[in-house]
Specification:
The structure holds 2 protein chains of 2 kinds. Chain A is mainly α. Chain A has helices at 2-29, 35-40, 46-56, 62-74, 87-122, 127-141, 144-158, 174-207, 211-218, 223-252, 254-261, 267-276, 280-308, 310-314. The chains are: A mainly alpha, B mainly alpha.
Chain lengths: 319, 338
């Protein structure tokens, strides 16, 4: 187990390095314009551009540029040249809202995804299954932010059921925190409920006629128990594996625009606002940190998985 | 020869009424978008980017302002002004929403489908190279694809889009200026390539082990011929399915990128950009947000349903699934036994 953990962590370090190189390439190398000018943003004075060129090493060879850029990012020297704020500080400020959104949404999508997928599989071919399948397909076909906008209009304005956006810290008032987050949670979860229920339904239908399931039926186990103990449990394994990847993707993906729609002032909204103003340093910071988070989270999930399933760490079924 | 696999697949597809409905829906949407110039010049008498801020129109015999003094655009007047402002105006500029919806759809579809095509082409090339050469080439390609996994698609799109928004791209001989439609196509295509390439690579690796490939190799078939004439034909069904599903995802990503201003550039409309401008007026004119989103939903829905149906029809045993947002994929792609 220790060997597996060490190997996995070493692999992770390599990936993190590669990720940072990619981010560096995206922002500093492939765009066809003066990088200092772009970094400087809208209030670019010649002096500022010159200072940025110096600080980031834009007039130096690429490896030096890379080293200087990473030093800036990891020593907290990344600032937005448009409004002068510190990027790391702004990201740290946004993390509670972003995590509140992602964790709450994840709870909803796992519970509903499993419930709907199970129901559809048990009722395969019947009305419940068809209705759920239609809903799931619609769920994965909507632009996430659009769903947020529509919910915002109908449920906070037409019918004043929920507060009109904004974030209340959990420590301030847990009830109000949840009340403000219901719509954003539903928005982010809708897509994943669709994905999970579809995947689980397909997995369960495949597993329904496996030998061990037939054996369980043959020995006279009630159908409900066969489903829950033998079909559902085995079909959940791939779903649970997905979850590690999805959670990371949700934090750095669908949460971005949802935060903006509901003005939650999280990391995502910070990134989007910076995008609208083409303020590059914050986008660079958020991209790098989010990718790091995804890599780290995946490594942790892999390690947890290896702990639970010895086959993984012994390499007999290398993922 | 009896019925070929294509004929069999076609028969299965034809028997699937849901799939047919999806195909008809998609065809209708394409027709709607293609009809943009006709509606624009024949009925509405205005282009997608023409402002009508201070103009007045006669609706059912009453004179009304296109944009009221407080900036609220006129709502749908249906045929009240003989087709002008059928769906109302789009905001302070007073552009014809119906015309923009049609032209915006053209842009969205062009970007989405081209990006899907690009992603598929790149993915097929990567999968063939990795699967044919195996060893180091495969390891390099597979690592590269794994790496792309670390970036949530939307964030990768936003990073590329904002970095390239000023000045465009210059990568070796390739130069694309900013504001060009090629830019979102390239960004979206690149972002989705790994999600198609990974399952395809697995399939090629499995095919590579089969006897017919060994036979071709022992006959002295060269690499290019082997890849294109022996391996590629066996990938078609997977390629078709993935193209459809990626097209759906590309439309969604285009919408998201345009929503944050780095996809299709103003003043040109696209459904995503229209949601963005409509959202600013959500409390006074909610239709401006709802309509373009509904168009995206219908288009993506029809493509998703069609993709699922194509998968079932082409290879009923295939498990090929595209799970873009989840950053996951179904590794066990069954390959039909020869």
């Amino acid at each position: 187990m220790t060997r597996f953990v060490l190997k996995r962590l070493a692999g992770m370090a390599l990936v993190l390095f590669a990720v940072s190189v990619i981010v560096f390439l995206i922002f500093n190398v492939i765009p066809n314009s003066d990088p200092a000018q772009r970094m400087a943003g809208k209030n670019a004075t010649p002096q500022l551009v010159e200072a940025i060129t110096e600080e980031w090493g834009f007039d130096e060879p690429l490896p030096v540029q890379y080293a200087k850029t990473m030093k800036l990012i990891f020593t907290g020297g990344l600032v937005s040249y448009s409004d002068g704020t510190d990027v790391d500080e702004r990201i740290l400020e946004g993390i509670p809202a972003t995590l509140s959104l992602a964790i709450g949404a994840a709870v909803i999508w796992v519970v509903l995804g499993i419930a709907f997928g199970y129901l559809a599989a048990v009722r395969a071919g019947r009305f419940t299954d068809r209705a759920l399948t239609v809903l799931a397909t619609i769920g994965i076909s909507m632009p996430v932010f659009w769903l947020g906008a529509v919910l915002l209009y109908f449920l906070t304005y037409e019918v004043e059921l929920f507060p009109n956006g904004g974030y209340v810290p959990l420590t301030e008032d847990p009830l109000d925190w949840a009340y403000h987050l219901v719509l954003p949670w539903v928005t982010v979860a809708a897509l994943y409920v669709g994905l999970y229920s579809r995947a689980l339904r397909a997995n369960m239908l495949d597993a329904m006629h496996a030998d061990h399931v037939e054996a369980a039926r043959a020995k006279g186990l009630p159908e409900g128990q066969v489903m829950r103990r033998h079909v559902l449990r085995n079909s959940l394994i791939p779903t649970v594996t997905l979850f590690g990847l999805d959670f990371g993707a949700a934090v750095g993906g669908s949460a971005l625009l949802t935060e903006t729609i509901f003005s939650l002032h999280g990391v995502g909204q910070y990134a989007i606002e910076s995008t609208l103003g083409l303020d590059l340093p914050p986008i660079m910071g958020v991209t790098l940190y989010a990718a790091f988070f995804v890599v780290l989270f995946n490594a942790l999930v892999d390690i947890a998985y290896a702990y639970l399933d010895p086959r993984v760490r012994l390499g007999s079924s290398a993922p | 020869m009896s019925r070929g696999p294509a004929a069999l697949a076609w028969r299965r597809l034809r028997g699937n009424r849901v799939a047919l409905a999806a195909a008809v829906l998609f065809a209708l949407i394409v027709a709607f978008c293609l009809a943009a110039p006709l509606w624009s010049s024949g009925v509405a008498g205005t282009g997608p980017n023409e402002p009508h801020t201070v103009e007045k129109i006669v609706v059912d015999g009453q004179e009304r302002e296109v944009v009221s003094p407080d900036g609220t655009p006129i709502g749908p007047v249906w045929l009240g002004a003989s087709g002008k402002f059928f769906l109302g105006a789009d905001g302070r500029l007073g552009r014809d929403e119906m015309v923009r919806l049609m032209y915006g759809g053209r842009t969205s579809l062009i970007v989405g489908l081209s990006a899907a095509l690009l992603a598929t082409l790149l993915a097929v090339a990567a999968a063939l190279l990795a699967g044919y050469y195996r060893g180091k080439v495969d390891a390099a390609i597979a690592r590269g694809l794994d790496l792309a996994w670390s970036f949530p698609v939307l964030l990768l799109g936003i990073a590329l889009g904002s970095a390239l928004a000023v000045g465009g791209l210059k990568l070796g001989p390739v130069e694309i200026e900013s504001g060009s439609l090629l830019l979102p196509i390239l960004i979206i295509g690149l972002a989705y390539t790994p999600y198609v390439a990974r399952p395809l690579r697995g399939e090629v690796l499995a095919l590579r082990e089969q006897e017919f490939v060994e036979a071709a190799v022992s006959q002295g078939t060269g690499p290019a011929r082997l890849m294109l004439r022996e391996l590629l034909p066996n990938l078609w069904s997977t390629i078709v399915v993935f193209f459809t599903l990626v097209a759906a995802q590309s439309l969604l990503l285009e919408a998201a990128l345009s929503f944050v201003g780095i996809g299709v550039q103003a003043p040109d409309p696209s459904w995503g950009a229209m949601i963005s401008s409509g959202f600013a007026l959500i409390y006074t004119s909610p239709l401006l947000t709802v309509l373009p989103g509904l168009m995206i939903l219908l288009t993506v829905l029809s493509l998703n349903v069609l993709g699922d149906a194509l998968r079932d029809a082409l290879d009923p045993r295939s498990q090929a699934q595209l799970e873009i947002h989840t950053g996951s994929y179904e590794p066990e792609l069954e390959v039909a036994a020869p």
